[in-house]
Amino acid sequence: MVRDLGTSLLGHDLKNPVIPASGTFGFGWEFAEYYDIDILGSMSLKGTTAEARYGNPLPRIAECTAGLINAIGLQNPGVKAVIEEEIPRLSRVYHDKVIANVGGHSVEEYVMTASAFNTCDKVFAVELNISCPNVKGGGMAFGTDPEIAKNLVYEVKKSVTKPLIVKLSPNVTSIADMARAVADGGADAVSLINTLVGMRIDLRTRKPVISVRTGGFSGPAVFPVAVRMVSEVARAVSLPVVGIGGVSSARDVIEMMMAGACAVQVGAANLVDPFACKRIIEELPSVMEELNINSLKEIIGVANA
Amino acid sequence: MRQQTLTLLSCRSLNASVYELILAGAEEMRAGQFVELSVPGFYLRRPISVADSEEGRLTLLVKEVGEGTKKLCTLQEGARLDVLTSLGRGFDLSARSPLLVGGGIGCAPLYKLAKDFVAAGVRPRAVLGFRNAEEIYYAEEFARYCDVTVATDDGSRGVKGNAVSVAEGIPHDRFYACGPQIMLRAAAQKLGEGEVSLEARMGCGFGACMGCSIVTVNGYARVCKEGPVFDAKEVVW
Known about the structure:
The complex is a heterodimer. Chain A has a seven-stranded parallel beta sheet. In chain A, strands 4-5-13-10 form a four-stranded antiparallel beta sheet, with no helix packed on it. Chain A has nine helices and 15 strands. Chain A has helices spanning 79-91, 107-115, 140-144, 146-159, 175-185, 223-236, 250-258, 268-272, 276-290, and strands at residues 7-9, 12-14, 18-20, 61-64, 67-70, 98-102, 123-129, 164-167, 189-192, 196-198, 201-202, 207-208, 215-218, 241-244, 263-266. The two termini of chain A are 28 Å apart. The longest helix of chain A has 15 residues, at 276-290. Chain B contains five helices and 16 strands. The relative contact order of chain B is 0.16. Chain B has three domains: 2-87, Translation factors (Elongation Factor Tu (Ef-tu), domain 3), CATH 2.40.30.10; 98-197, Rossmann fold (3-Layer(aba) Sandwich), CATH 3.40.50.80; 200-237, Ribbon (Dihydroorotate dehydrogenase B (pyrk subunit), domain 3).
């Protein structure tokens, strides 16, 4: 029988739940050279700020067991170039709508960048990155203090017309409290988890591997943490949840959905296997068959009862 | 870029830390391009420059710098490796009197370049720089395709001095350098027109993560995608 891979997020139908995570797929169009990216459920574009940013000095990458640390620092060409150059380029090779991911240093910057997508038809939702651990003086404070997070979401909602997904940080005592706070602020959905703050030391030089000392840890090693947090958040709020964190296979996608995710983002896996999302989508029907799942929609949150 | 499964034909030690790996089943690649190898037990792939690529045989010269490359250099013949091939932009072979300047493991990608120049009817000159005689590798192989000058920092073999200072005395219309950053910067300042092949810690190796971005006079560029070969004048040193 035909297995139904479809799901929906914020009223937008996705042909499958697999979405490349922000920062691991560029602005998408470059991947069209490698395979037909129209198979993807959607994509979350590279984190965008008001102005162009170079990001952090090199090295920005450190390897870990079953994962990596990155400290890119939100390198991006700025929101104007994203809307005028990157998204039109993507539209030629990807025909579904996408998620714009927005970073910032101040409430004003978040508002300005997020609202710039109001008139961009290609974007069906804005994902607010309030949890980037790699940008000094920004991002992280918004993601770790419930009151600050709530206020930011409230201010952004006033001027943004697209549905708002708030991307949560795992670097908090209670991610459920953070989810409740952003729900109070007016978030339409939450996505989690962003990376865990980590650090590696070069034993020969006796210095941190990453130029800015610490970075965000992701990869298969964080998957169990992500599943736990997705489940906690799904039980704490009634908003749609997008599951992120170490997803590398069709089985991982199904586990995330059972924990309460209505869609799933794939991040680190794209960096070690450029065909990861394609492989996962192709694997899904046979894994669903094995597990007696007719439709992915029917398993969302089944483990939370 | 292609994802290929390659078979390790041989792995031999060239000196205390450099190994020559020959793999079968690879598509033909350009001089200056690189591959990303998946090493069993390690999460990130390892970017390694193409030392030679001919008739499906891929030669890699690998320096043991950490646990991942150590594992790579101890793989048994017949091992099957998951490899992303044909990554990055290669060298431009427009020189009529090319000078290849290598430092340490940076000599590796210049070998294929030397062969390609010879195939195009141009015999290049090369300066291969090493810290000492023990670290020299592939000097005889290079000598088949170019006029080689070996330089060592301590003078234990060849000319005493660094590769760039030796290269300054050799006539050329364009240089092609690969080696430590400090050597490449000196080459860009002293050797006129030329190209440099840069190294960086990479996340993906195919342009997705921005883990290896550098600043150039034309804006930001990814070592893995717009590079690893850059015009020497383009790089902001």
